Amino acid sequence: MGNYQAHNSGKFLLARFTEDGRPDHSFADRGVLLTNLAEKPTGNALAIQSDGQLLVAGNSGMRNTRSWDFTLVRLHEDGRFDTAFGSGGIVTTDFLGATDSAIGVGVQSDGRIVACGNACTMRSGDECFVAVARYHRDGTLDPTFGVN
Fold first, then answer.
1. In CATH, what is the architecture of 41-135?
2. Are 128 and 120 in contact (CB under 8 A)?
3. Fewer CB within 10 Å: C terminus or N terminus of the chain?
């Protein structure tokens, strides 16, 4: 998994390699997916679902407002966005209105997706909390998660 932020360009990079370290030409454009995701995107974690689809967790948002949200991206095995997931293959979740970032992602045996990271109340990140969200397979939030 790669992470690309040259000059805050809003480009998102993900690359796949063969076992011998060469670009896997069956993935995206000759082994590399480089696309606009949002302003200042980051990819922090990768999970592979049982059907081979890729989940990338991180954050994306607007640099000028310093507001970032949890971001999940789901790709088919060949590097195409899975348009059945969220909006065009992308799901964002805002916790506290400021800087949120997913730093881990996993897939439960029932196919639901769990992302964890941090959520901060202030744009400067002065007050941060652990944040965890669970999503259905289609990227919608699971409203039963965390309910007693």
1. Beta Barrel (2.40)
2. yes
3. C
CB 74 within 8 A of CB 98: no
Choose between 99 and 54: higher pLDDT.
Answer: 54
For range 77-86, the mean pLDDT:
93
Least confident of 16-30, 46-60, 76-90, 120-134: 120-134
Q: Label residues 33-72 b or e (16+ Cβ within 10 Å = b).
A: beeebbbbbbbbbebeeeeebbbbbbbbbeeeeebbbbbb
SS3 101: strand
Query: Do β-strands 113-120 and 67-75 pair in parallel, antiparallel, or remain unpaired?
Result: unpaired
Amino acid code (one letter) for 117: G
Quickly list DSSP for 32-76: EEEEE-SSS-EEEEEEE-TTS-EEEEEEEEETTTTEEEEEEEEE-
Tokens 């480089």 -> residue: 34
